[in-house]
Design a protein that fits this description.
Elements: H1 2-24, H2 27-46, H3 61-76, H4 80-83, H5 85-92, H6 103-106, E1 110-111, E2 114-115, H7 130-141, H8 144-157, H9 160-185, E3 188-189, E4 195-196, H10 199-209, H11 213-251, H12 255-274, H13 277-306, H14 311-323, H15 332-347, H16 354-358, H17 366-373, H18 375-395, E5 410-412, E6 419-421, H19 423-431, H20 437-468, H21 472-491, H22 495-507, H23 509-538
Antiparallel strand pairs: 1-2, 3-4, 5-6
Helix pairs in contact: 1-12, 1-21, 2-22, 3-9, 3-23, 5-17, 7-13, 7-18, 7-20, 8-15, 8-18, 8-19, 9-14, 9-15, 9-17, 9-18, 9-23, 10-11, 10-23, 11-12, 11-20, 11-21, 11-22, 12-20, 12-21, 13-18, 13-20, 18-19, 20-21
Length: 539
């Protein structure tokens, strides 16, 4: 272990030197200016509008794909987001663990012709528990989108955008259920017990079953390429950049001077975790996620209870604003688009990334993890994003700013005329009730960023191995590149590069959702097996 770490950082010395010299020479800004047209082109392609305007608005095809797909799965599976919610809770807390080990002793119930006790013990094929898989996936989605993204949504669309974020989160639970069930069903398990799973595998293997092997390989390869890019950018460099910016701002030191060293420290901590693979990542996230979410939710609850008399008014604004939008964005469809788009960035339902983490679970029933996965958008969007929205709405009960902002995701403070958005707006909202809470919020942001990075390192590594093989050399090459981007993100202002890579997260929707539309009948079969086993257990 120590030799491995020493080897990694010896190889990274040239990268560290380059990152420091690049900022001193202003190379980051030059790369940024050069790459800006490419980033703009890529973002335009990912958010390419539907050819027909809907109520006068250009709606990105990717948003339509997410919404229509999630709605279809919700209806087809008869509202699994509601119907299967109690089953999900019971599965996470271990009520049905006996199914994975002692099926036949409880009942002779047959599932698709097999007696439960005689089904291959696939629970031995896996690396983490249901709870660990859930926390790993949640750590990849709960992050700056919940803190900054919600504020941007409200700044652009008013309180009504919150309503559509919640709706997107609720129907997104169905998409997450489908993709994570498939992730377990079509995973590969190596001779040493290591699990390889995710959309790359269910796209290639699942579509091959349906006689579309070449098409499946193309979609699987495309997903893997996009996922590697997303892991370096939105899942890594952006996170380390924002964490370094928050820390230097809190301490009162120069980002240009000290951001690099913060990046080196973060890279060292990340290296210790990701070297251990999914088991160590899961062990860390199962401790960090409840802690960081607990701190944030507790602070939100303090503010909500201190404004308890205004809660009904706030929800009234959210509901009325969803159908009678406030000035700024200017229309119902516009507010809907903002809400759905920000929710998609936040919970990644339909993007398929979380299926990579969930596929590593120890279970013999694929649908058991799909059921667990539907909790993820609920936690991320319905609970945490809604709480953030309430905090911002309470803050503006004194008409601190006008909804609609400047069109760039910022609001203009009425008292000073200052433009504030994202994390800055959320910090002001917390500080207005809990003095100096912005300091605690900085700690939460760093934890959010760290947990997102380690989860996305696993997503990217699995995609990298799909493309370049499962040898130790490929493993080491990816981890070196990933750690390099931690440092580069924290020490340079490569906004265009990060923008380009961040758009790759949404781009994952295209290959993933296309595959889901072909493979969803398999999910119905797997759900039938799992629910049948649960009924047998209760007898």
């Amino acid at each position: 272990m120590k030799k491995y770490l020493l080897f990694i950082f010896t190889l990274m010395i040239p990268v560290i030197t380059f990152a420091q010299e690049a900022e001193n020479l202003g190379l980051g800004q030059r790369i940024d200016r050069w790459f800006q047209p490419i980033a703009d082109w890529w973002e335009h392609k990912v958010l390419y509008p539907f050819p027909i305007k809907i109520f006068g608005y250009d709606i990105p095809i990717v948003v339509l794909l997410l919404v229509l797909g999630a709605t279809f799965f919700t209806l087809y599976f008869r509202f699994p987001n509601i119907r299967l919610f109690p089953v999900a809770i019971n599965t996470v807390r271990g009520k049905y663990d006996e199914l994975d080990h002692h099926g036949a002793e409880k009942s002779d119930l047959a599932v698709d012709g097999d007696v439960i006790g005689t089904i291959k013990d696939e629970s031995q094929e896996g690396e983490v528990s249901h709870f660990q898989a859930l926390t790993t996936a949640v750590s990849g989605t709960v992050g700056l989108g919940n803190i900054a993204g919600v504020a941007v949504a409200i700044a652009l669309g008013g309180p009504g955008a919150t309503f559509w974020m919640i709706v997107c989160g609720l129907i997104g639970m169905s998409s997450k259920f489908v993709e994570c069930t498939l992730g377990v069903k079509y995973r590969d398990v190596g001779e040493d017990g290591t699990v390889y799973g995710g959309p790359m595998y269910y796209l290639s293997k699942g579509l091959k079953e349906r006689g579309m092997g070449v098409f499946g390989k193309i979609l699987g390869g495309l997903f893997a390429i996009l996922c590697v890019g997303a892991s370096f950018g939105g899942g890594n460099a952006f996170q380390s950049n924002q964490a370094a910016a928050q820390l230097t701002g809190l301490i009162g030191i120069s980002f240009e001077t000290y951001g690099f060293w913060i990046g080196v420290i973060m890279a060292a901590i990340v290296a210790v975790v990701i070297i251990g693979g999914i088991k160590r990542i899961a062990n860390v996230t199962e401790k960090i996620v409840p802690f960081m979410a607990g701190i944030y939710i507790l602070a939100c609850l303090v503010i909500i209870f201190s404004n308890f008399s205004f809660v009904d008014d706030a929800f009234g604004m959210i509901i009325s604003g969803a159908f009678t939008p406030m000035a700024g964005l200017g229309g119902l469809v516009g507010v809907l688009i903002v809400g759905f788009q920000r929710a998609a960035f936040s919970n990644e339902a339909g993007a398929g990334s979380a299926a990579i983490a969930h596929s590593a679970v120890k279970t013999k029933y694929s649908a058991s993890e799909g059921v667990v996965a539907l909790l993820e958008p609920f936690i991320d969007t319905v609970v945490i994003c809604t709480m953030t929205a309430l905090v911002v709405i309470f803050y503006n009960s004194g008409d601190i700013f006008a909804y609609g902002g400047d069109g760039g995701g910022n609001v203009i403070l009425n008292a000073t005329g200052e433009a504030v958005g994202g994390v800055g707006l959320t910090s002001l909202a917390f500080d207005s009730v809990i003095p100096h809470f912005s300091k605690i919020l900085t700690v939460a942001i760093v934890l959010f960023a760290f947990s997102t990075m380690i989860s996305w390192s696993y997503y990217g590594l699995q995609s990298w191995k799909y493309l370049f093989g499962r040898g130790k050399g490929a493993d080491l090459a990816y981890k070196l590149l990933f750690l390099a981007f931690v440092i580069i993100g924290a020490s340079t202002t490569l906004n265009a590069v990060i923008k380009f890579s961040d758009a790759m997260i949404l781009a994952l929707v295209f290959p993933n959702m296309i595959g889901l539309f072909f493979l969803f009948p398999r999910v119905r079969e797997e759900l039938g097996k799992y629910m049948g086993a649960i009924r047998g257990l209760k007898k």
